[in-house]
Structure formats: structure tokens, C-alpha cells
Amino acid sequence: MRTKLTLLALAVALAISPVAMADTFAYDFTTTLSNAFTNGVLTASGTEVTSGVYLITSGTLSLFSVGLGFDPPIATGNVVPIPVAGTPGDTFTSPSGYFYYDNLLTPGSVPSLDNSGLLFILSNGDEMNIYANGGSVSSALEYTLYESNGAQVNGNFNVINATTPDGGMTLMLLGGVLVGLETLRRKLRV
Fold first, then answer.
1. What is the pTM of this model?
2. Whole-angstrom Cα distance, residue 102 to residue 93?
3. Average pLDDT over residues 126-147
């Protein structure tokens, strides 16, 4: 009876372990002008939709800005997901109609965003879009941070870190070890 309960617990643990998990990325956005600066951190999670391209499904943006007209100058925001009926790679219009966005991130390439970029809703209700502006890689001002109140700035968008969860592999290995230990216990008992 005890063995059956052990095997049942193992089966349940394997059944509920996640099959696919999102990758997580962290970027910073910086710009320094003669009379102003902006510093922001983006943390985003998404699912790979094609090789090296991720559809960002959730995330936050924290922004600190001085002298650029961003309102509020210290702000946080959340990713606006693409519409349920949407297809990754399509371009969508923001809820206000101010921006186009696709929420695609390509962490291994330069630029990491396309010209539709990622859309956020800020704590004050404004929308903010960060996108590649087609600038020169050598100038390092290849990205634009644009708020729906008209404030915008070009700057750097650099990866801080990227992590890929193990997709439940740790739980599966643990389950295999438990089965092996139970088998060994039985053999030693006989």
C-alpha cells in the first residue's frame, strides 16, 4: 500500500510539473543629454515564437527621468498584452490609438526590438512604447522611449540578464531519483 502511494505521489508530481515555461529578460534604458537624462529598467517574460524571437506576455517598466517631459518623472508600467485573437508578428494598435506595437523581443540581435516595439501602460494611465528607431548602432541611440503625452527620448537599450527556466526538468530528475531509491530499497529488502 505504501509503495502505491509513493508511486501515485510521484505520478502527480510529474503530471503537474510545467511542460513549457517563459524566458525572462531584464534590460536597462539609459540616455544622457546635456540638460536631461533618463534611466529605466525593463523586466519581461515571454515565449519563444520563432528561433530567437520572443513574444513578451508580461513585464514591468520602471523609469526615472529628469528634464524630458515624462509624466510622472518617476513611473512604473506593465506590458500591454497583444489581443487574444492576435498572431505573433502582427502589429496592433494601442488602446488609445497612439502607438503600433507587436511586443516582440529578439535578445540575441541588434536591435533587440523592431520599430513597433513593446507597449506599457504607466501608473498614471498613459501609454509608453519602446522601439528601435533605425538609428546607427555606432551612435548607440538606436531606441526610442515614447510616452503618449508626446514626450520622447532616444537612448541605449542593453541586456542586463536573461534566464531560461528549466521547464520542470529538476522535478523530473527528482522523480527519477525517487523511483530509483524505491527500487533499490525493494531489492535490498528481498
1. 0.69
2. 9
3. 77
